[in-house]
Design a protein that fits this description.
The chain is 30% helix and 21% strand. It has 16 helices and 21 strands.
């Protein structure tokens, strides 16, 4: 086996946590290597809007959002409801505020901004309407120069060849900024097309990695430690079949194609404990004309029905909750809920559009591919999707009654701050704090409950997708990887979806996955350089 270079720190993975952790290490004078399995940096972070859930951080304070130190802690305690993770929650809250303060000192990161995304569990103690999510500023491609070609594109760019444009937004902006900041420390090295094979252990300590790089087997030594931040195993069909409660092989995932669990398996091979391997950051996925889904964050109209032709949830509830409900019902009722069917009518398409410009008819590619089916009557539509017509007719009639009254008596669509946000804004742009009155649409029916009554009728397919698995290596509050007996493996750290989530089976707010990845990568570096928490 060829001998590679020696570094102070080796980081496996180049998503948000990997690159930010690498920057934190390199900015402290440590010679830091990032190895990335694919030909571009960014991982699943590059596909995201780059929301980061950081209660009490400076961007929130600049936006006029003040909260006591215990508010977010009370919220996490309530929604996670797992005493074994309280130390991880406390570490997360402390690290997020400190990390943003540090990043904003570097001109590449500039100033993060608040985005008005309500917390996902609106009735939990400590929940906020304003939310605690922040975003990086956009990044002109010209500022990044040739490095822009190294940043993974968005899903539309990678799937359908959509032009990149002149500005990197969301996750691409975060990745571009972190990449430039890391390389310009003078202590950072990036190796693309370099796949982790195993960890090197000497005298019970992890001292490096073995990898395959451009067809060559190499060893990279790490004097201080190895940080595994290489995503989850959402693209590994064998591991998903072994651990997950419904049959998913990764085809429907919106995680990065390279996320096959290499880092997880390398950690297990040296004695690491695991947790939450049956979990994922679930989301409904709307099947596109190319046959694959895209993460679907909220439904403004129409209804979803299962294989029996019956409506089964608030279609606009937070996406991870919706995904978990699909799993639960598919696993326990004997009725297919994966996939399910999104029923719409011409009236909704006239109002909101579908698959293109809201002011234009549905993009022909949707109908030509069969991703969107059209029928003159509900009975014909029921035949197209193989559900009982009488059940579908009853479901639609019930929903139309709710639409007339403006109140969804079964599933309460339109009543939560998250639901209302999905009607008022598209995506997660930064902006002023939104106000959500108790009766958001006084004098009018709930616009999230527009009746289904005007033919022709349409149906699209919704499957169970995810933005990554959330189970992985068990870690402590400093991201040190633990053995089954609770002892840390010296020299080994994990963050992001390579580690079991600090939020357990819950998804507290927009940006929890990226926030966790950054926060625990940060804590890992502080630990390996001996700085520790404040």
């Amino acid at each position: 086996m060829a001998s590679g270079e020696s570094y102070d720190v080796v980081v496996v993975g180049s998503g948000g946590g990997g690159l930010v952790g690498a920057y934190v290490a390199a900015s402290r004078g440590l010679r830091t290597l990032v190895i990335e399995k694919t030909d571009r940096v960014g991982g699943t972070t590059a596909y995201s809007g780059a929301g980061i859930w950081y209660p009490g951080s400076a961007p929130l304070k600049r936006a006029g959002i003040e909260e006591g130190p215990e508010d977010a802690r009370a919220y996490l305690r309530s929604v996670v409801a797992d005493d074994t993770r309280q130390h991880l929650q406390d570490a997360y809250l402390e690290a997020g505020r400190r990390l943003i303060d540090e990043l904003e000192q570097n001109p590449w990161f500039q100033s993060f901004v608040h985005g008005p995304v309500p917390d996902y569990f609106a009735s939990a103690p400590g929940a906020t309407l304003a939310g605690r999510t922040i975003f990086p500023p956009d990044l002109p491609v010209a500022d990044l120069g040739d490095r822009a070609e190294t940043v993974r594109g968005s899903i539309p760019r990678e799937r359908w060849g959509v032009e990149r444009g002149t500005v990197l937004t969301g996750g691409r902006a975060l990745i571009g900024r972190a990449l430039a900041a890391f390389l310009e420390t003078g202590n950072g090295t990036l190796r693309l097309n370099t796949r982790l094979e195993s960890l090197v252990v000497e005298n019970d300590r992890v001292v490096g990695v073995t990898a395959t790089s451009e067809g060559e087997h190499v060893t990279f030594r790490a004097g201080r430690g190895v940080l595994l931040a290489a995503g989850g195993f959402e693209r590994n069909a064998e591991l998903r079949a072994k651990y997950h409660p419904v049959p998913l092989d990764g085809t429907w995932s919106n995680g990065c194609p390279g996320n096959t669990g290499d880092a997880l398996q390398a950690g297990v091979a040296v004695g690491a404990a695991t947790d939450l391997l049956d979990e994922a950051w679930y989301a409904p996925g709307l099947v596109q004309p190319d046959g694959l889904p895209v993460f679907h964050s909220g439904t403004r109209g129409g209804i979803w029905v299962n294989g029996a032709g019956e409506r089964f949830m608030n279609e606009t509830r937070p996406y991870d909750q919706a995904g978990h409900e699909m799993v639960r019902l598919h696993s326990t009722t004997g009725v297919s809920h994966i996939p399910c069917h999104w029923i719409l009518d011409q009236g909704l398409i006239d109002r909101d559009g579908f698959g293109g410009d809201p002011e234009q008819p549905p993009n022909p590619a949707w109908l030509e591919s069969g991703a969107l089916k059209k029928a003159d009557t509900l009975e014909e539509l029921a035949g197209l999707i193989g559900v009982p017509y009488e059940a579908l007719r009853k479901t639609v009639d019930e929903f139309n009654g709710y639409a007339a009254d403006g109140v969804d008596e079964r599933f309460h669509r339109g009543e939560s701050p998250w639901d209302q946000m999905n009607f008022h804004i598209v995506g997660f742009p930064a902006g002023p704090v939104m106000n959500y009155p108790a009766k958001p649409w006084p004098g009018v029916a709930n616009p999230l409950l527009q009746p289904i009554e005007t033919g022709p009728f349409y149906v699209a397919t919704v499957v169970l997708s995810d933005i990554g698995t959330k189970g992985g290596l068990r870690t402590d509050e400093n991201a040190r990887v633990l053995r089954p007996d609770g002892e840390a493996i010296p020299g080994l750290y994990a963050a992001g979806n390579t580690a079991a989530a600090m939020s357990g089976r819950a998804y507290p707010g927009a940006g929890t996955p990226i926030g966790s990845s950054l926060a625990f990568s940060y804590r890992a570096v502080l630990d390996l350089v001996g700085q520790g928490p404040a």
